[in-house]
Design goal:
- It contains 6 helices and 17 strands.
- By secondary structure, it is of the alpha/beta class.
- It has 2 domains: 63 residues, Golgi alpha-mannosidase II (Immunoglobulin-like, Sandwich), CATH 2.60.40.1180; 213 residues, Rossmann fold (3-Layer(aba) Sandwich).
- A hairpin with a 6-residue loop joins strand 16 and strand 17.
- It is globular, with a radius of gyration of 19 Å.
Length: 297
């Protein structure tokens, strides 16, 4: 099977989002009208042209990590609890809400994968059903649905599934054929196999660690291959694509690519692996934000 190592793909088509600057373990981002500063473990370099420890200016919200774990937001002035931003290339709208765990409900670097999925669905020449596992707040679900697919969105966190419904409604997809499922992903896939349900494509965005709705422990290195094998069984005889994302430093893009090569060895297609990242406006560097592997027919 052919494998292409694509290097780093930049999510550089945003208007409502911008990575303004990075350094000293922090990133400064514009989310619509508001600027947030958050920690990022990938940022090991100092801010370009600034002494180490220089205070950050021009922010509305600043997330401070606690030495005891977790952290808290500091806001300069009253801010809305939530607001919306758009991704114009796909005509999608997403709710942004700074959470207690520093996240905002969206990973903007994944825009390159949303566009790839949407393009595969639009050009498939057939009806497409997509299974989105660990679907989080549903950006990929919205992209697939907007491209014309029927989607099954699965996440163990009920709040994330509700957030996905909100994003779908904001994007004009409130009546789109999307099933919203709160469940442990592995258990759900196994039940789908027993029910005889099949999908044309699977998207997976598994965490490094996690717990299912019943307290089931998920550890990426221990459970990923088993899940991938079950996903292979839930695919139709002539699948369209498989997209696997990862956010752990323990895996390289080549490892993710090798997993997909082995998984889809009996299907005609090709594998691409690489990184996704965001351009830094201040100095032109790129912040790597995760890795991916794509199998496509």
């Amino acid at each position: 099977m052919a494998v292409e190592h694509s290097g780093l793909l930049r999510a550089d088509r945003w208007v409502d989002y911008q990575l303004l600057d990075c350094g000293d373990g922090l990133k400064q981002e514009r989310w619509g009208a508001y600027v947030l500063v958050r920690p990022d473990p990938q940022i090991l370099w100092p801010r370009h042209g600034q002494p180490v420890g220089t205070p950050w200016e021009k922010w509305n919200g600043f997330y401070h990590r606690s030495t005891e774990g977790g952290g808290h937001w500091d806001f300069k002035q009253p801010m809305p609890e939530q607001w919306n931003i758009r991704y114009e290339p796909l005509n999608l709208t997403f709710k942004i809400h700074p959470t207690a765990f520093k996240h905002t409900g969206l990973f903007p670097e994944q825009a390159v994968n949303w566009e790839w999925c949407a393009r595969k669905i639009r050009t498939a020449g057939r009806p497409v059903s997509v299974l989105n596992l660990f679907g989080y707040t549903g950006a990929a679900t919205c992209a697939a649905a907007a491209a014309g697919a029927s989607v099954c969105h699965v996440d163990a966190a009920e709040g994330m599934v509700r957030w996905c419904r909100e994003n779908a409604a904001l994007s004009g997809l409130g009546e789109a054929p999307v099933r919203y499922i709160v469940d442990d992903c592995l258990k759900f896939v196994r039940r789908e196999i027993k029910r005889g349900r099949r999908y044309d494509a699977v998207i997976l965005d598994p965490p490094t660690y996690g717990r299912g709705g019943g307290g089931e422990l998920w550890k990426l290195e221990d459970h990923l291959w088993d899940l991938l094998c079950e996903c292979r069984r839930v695919l139709v005889d002539q699948p369209l694509f498989v997209l696997l994302n990862a956010y752990t430093a323990r895996l390289s893009p080549t490892v993710v690519g090798n997993l997909l090569v082995e998984l889809m060895h009996d299907a005609s297609g090709s594998v691409t692996d690489g990184e996704v990242g965001l351009p830094i406006a201040a100095d032109g560097k790129v912040l790597p934000c995760g890795i991916f592997g794509r199998w496509e027919s």
